[in-house]
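Archive entry: two folds, one per protein. Generate the first.
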Amino acid sequence: MASRAHPKQGEIWWVNLDPTVGQEINKQRPCLVVSPDDMNAHLGTVIAAPITSTLRAWPTRVAVKFNRKESSVALDQIRAVDRSRLIRRAATVDAEPALDVLREMFAKA
């Protein structure tokens, strides 16, 4: 069962993001796990950023290749999701570029 899995930072998981409200990215889609492994192992939630095939030249969007297609990690849409929303692991990528952008985003806060 996926909800019992311990996702790791840098893994891409298919996640059911519905229901959503307003401008939140919705539906079942791949998401990059950005929360640290020790957090993922002990909490019932993970912090994930949705991946979209809609490419935008925004500083909060980080390019990633997923399923042989150019996509972007939507760091402006990060959210905590319950592990029960995780459907299956899809891939592992180098998360450092996305994590660097997150560090910069929150350093300015």
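Generate the second and append.
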Amino acid sequence: MGQDLLNEALTVIRNAEASGKSECVVPASKLIKDVLLVMQKDGYIGSFESIETGKSVKFKIELIMKLNNCGAISPKLSIGVKEMEKHEIIHLPAKDFGILILSTSRGIMDHKEAKSKNIGGKLISFAY
């Protein structure tokens, strides 16, 4: 297992979607749970649940075939509200298509919610 669990989890989700699977299992962490909640709220994945596999806990995720691509952004970039549009152009294929996921002082949220609350944060992943 690698160092970046978020990147590993998003890679598993992306590969499972690409191969047409209806569900996948990824490692569990609080950050991954928060990112999955944002992706679920924005309609990219279905429900997910925590399952215990021996010594570890994992998330079983229902895939709904609405995800084209997702990934972790490394290094984690600190961005302000004014820089979000620049990063939308860099990381997303088109304007208003997809989400950037940020870690802010008010929790994990997508860039649209962060813009509406006028807060910046660390850019951690994207999905479209």
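Annotation attached to the second fold: Helices lie at 5-18, 30-41, 84-91, 111-116. The longest helix spans residues 5-18.
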